[in-house]
Design brief:
Blueprint: E1 2-3, E2 12-18, E3 21-26, E4 33-34, H1 36-50, E5 57-62, E6 67-69, E7 71-72, H2 87-105, H3 107-110, E8 115-119, E9 122-124, H4 126-132, E10 136-140, E11 144-146, H5 160-167, H6 171-180, E12 184-185, H7 186-192, E13 197-199, H8 202-218, H9 222-237, H10 240-254, H11 258-269
Pathway: Lipid metabolism; fatty acid beta-oxidation
GO molecular function: delta(3,5)-delta(2,4)-dienoyl-CoA isomerase activity
Family: Belongs to the enoyl-CoA hydratase/isomerase family.
Length: 285
């Protein structure tokens, strides 16, 4: 295990358990409640990871044994009280504040590499915004989720209501959970489509499974995985025909990669393919 001090910050700890895999850990005691410095750092860390050509897959977890995140630290919203007294100016400042917050939490989505969320314990409010922006979501069977925002007098505005309806197969349940703010279990999250796997063993158990998946992904062609993430995101937001045209254009360039030749040679030889690192500068998705 290699510490990645170049990527870590005050509230985010990053390490590499094997080549091409990094684990990003939320690490703000006592409950990983997000205040502005925390979410700004979160966004910066993922943006830095997105520019690191040695990375191929990311696992998002928590250092705390019983908590993924309790959501937002509401003392952080005290900054809103310093905004202009004029309603129009105050509205503009609030909008700017919210968009910056959305951009930080959405950093996993624009990261060019797959991000696997390993969730356990308490996962409230902002936790749903965070994991909904990840590519793969696993939960320990002890996880307690809640879309908590209506209980504090607001509509969730950092990504849950934008992304969760596109992830879940049960729209009625999405509405119920968003309106009631009731707790729901990992098994219910799996049934609705928020998570794809529920495992035993708490934090360590879900992290182990996430790392196993990350290991598999890290051995694949980085060009192919990056292109797959980009195309899946495009498909979510466009028609089938638009996505077919998009991927045809994308692959008109990417099919020229040496990865294709390496993969075919390895398959013929019944060996594991070895792929070259990505270039020094990785474009944001």
């Amino acid at each position: 295990m290699t510490e990645r001090s170049d990527l870590s910050g005050q509230f985010i700890k990053v390490y590499s358990p094997e080549p091409h895999v990094v684990v990003v850990q939320l690490a703000r005691n006592p409950v990983n409640a997000f205040h502005e410095p925390f979410w700004v750092e979160y966004g910066h860390v993922f943006d830095k990871i997105g520019q690191d050509p040695t990375v191929r897959v990311v696992v998002l977890a928590s250092t705390l044994p019983k908590v993924f995140s309790a959501g937002i630290d509401f003392t952080a919203l005290g900054a809103l009280q310093t905004f202009d007294k004029d309603p129009a100016r105050r509205a503009l400042q609030t909008r700017t504040f919210t968009i910056a917050f959305q951009e930080a939490i959405g950093a996993t989505e624009r990261c060019p590499y797959p991000v696997i969320a390993a969730v356990h314990g308490v996962a409230l409010g902002l936790s749903i915004d965070i994991i909904a922006a990840c590519d793969v979501r696993y939960a320990a069977d002890d996880t307690r989720f809640s879309i908590k925002e209506v209980d504090v007098g607001l509509a969730a505005d950092i990504g849950t209501l934008a992304r969760l309806p596109k992830l879940a197969g049960n729209q009625s349940l999405v509405h119920e959970l968003a309106y009631t703010a009731r707790d729901f279990s990992a098994s219910e999250a799996e049934r609705m489509g928020l998570v794809s796997r529920v495992v035993s063993g708490g934090r360590d158990g879900v992290l182990k499974i996430a790392l196993e998946t990350a290991h598999i992904i890290a051995q694949k062609s980085p060009i192919a995985v990056l292109g797959t993430k980009r195309t899946l995101q495009h498909a979510r937001d466009h028609t089938v025909q638009e996505n077919l045209e998009y991927v045809a254009t994308w692959n008109s360039a990417m099919l020229q990669s040496s990865d294709l030749t390496a993969a075919l040679k390895a398959a013929k030889a019944k060996q594991l393919a070895i792929f070259e690192p990505l270039g020094k500068s990785i474009a944001k998705l």
